[in-house]
Amino acid sequence: MSLNVLVVSENPTYNGAILKPLCERLFVECGRTRANIEVLANPHTNGYEDAKKLFPRTVLDLYSHKHLVLFLPDSDGKERSPEFAGMEAGFEKGAVAIGKSIRLICCAAVPEVEAWLLAGHDDKWERDWQWGVIRADRSIKENYFYPFLQRHGQDESRFPDQGRKQLMVAALRNYAGIRQRCPELQALETRIRAHIANLP
């Protein structure tokens, strides 16, 4: 059975370009090489609160044919676990009410999704970059990611995502490094594996 997965991000053009190849690799690692990964683009989201308000009703109304939904926002330096637990429980309750077995798994990128891309490119970091400092910086986009994108990304006029997808695909050659530097991804992979193991 093909596994149909919906990924909800804070922005499908920028964050979604990073998350789609990453999630494709995640499911390969979890033994589902033919998982169908779709990044939610309709309705278009712009920021955490905008994406969060789609749960559970809008996602269930439009995408209840999916098997799994991943909500992958930025942490922005906040502990989102209690909020995520409530979202997941509410989503499950809504799914049961309409007779669907679709499930929601939430995972926040620390501190932002762009860190997951940078984690795989340690061979291209500036000499004074240190991962602990990068990961702790709540302005990671401005201080690290945008300079990196300017040096290694593509012309904005050619690619709406400014080269994010291409850079994420390249970063995934060092998937082990990304996984080691980003323990929240290890936790997400564990949860996905557990969910897949319980599928019929």
Describe the structure.
With 200 residues, the chain is of the alpha/beta class. The protein has one domain. Helices cover 50% and strands 8% of the residues. The protein is built from ten helices and four strands. The chain has a four-stranded parallel sheet. α1 packs parallel to α8 and α9 crosses α10. The longest helix is centred in the middle third of the chain and has 17 residues. The protein is globular, with a radius of gyration of 17 Å.
Summarize the structure in short.
This protein is an alpha/beta fold and 200 residues long. The chain has helices spanning 15-29, 48-52, 57-63, 81-97, 113-118, 131-136, 140-152, 164-171, 175-181, 183-197; strands at 4-8, 36-39, 68-71, 103-106.
List keywords for this structure.
four-stranded parallel β-sheet; globular; 200 residues; 50% helix; alpha/beta
Could you give the topology of this structure?
Blueprint: E1 4-8, H1 15-29, E2 36-39, H2 48-52, H3 57-63, E3 68-71, H4 81-97, E4 103-106, H5 113-118, H6 131-136, H7 140-152, H8 164-171, H9 175-181, H10 183-197
Helix pairs in contact: 1-8, 9-10
Which sequence of strands runs across the widest sheet? Answer: 2-1-3-4
| Secondary structure: number of strands | 4
| Terminal Cα span | 9 Å
* Number of helical segments with 4 or more residues: 10
Query: What does the oligomeric state look like here?
Result: single chain
Mean pLDDT: 94
- Biggest sheet statistics: 4 strands, parallel
> C-alpha Rg, in Å?
17 Å
Q: What structural class do helix, strand and pairing data support?
A: alpha/beta
Sheet-strand content, in percent, reads 5-15%
Q: Sketch the topology as an H/E string, one letter per element.
A: EHEHHEHEHHHHHH
Number of domains: 1
The residue ranges in which pLDDT falls below 50 over 5 or more consecutive positions are none
Shape: globular
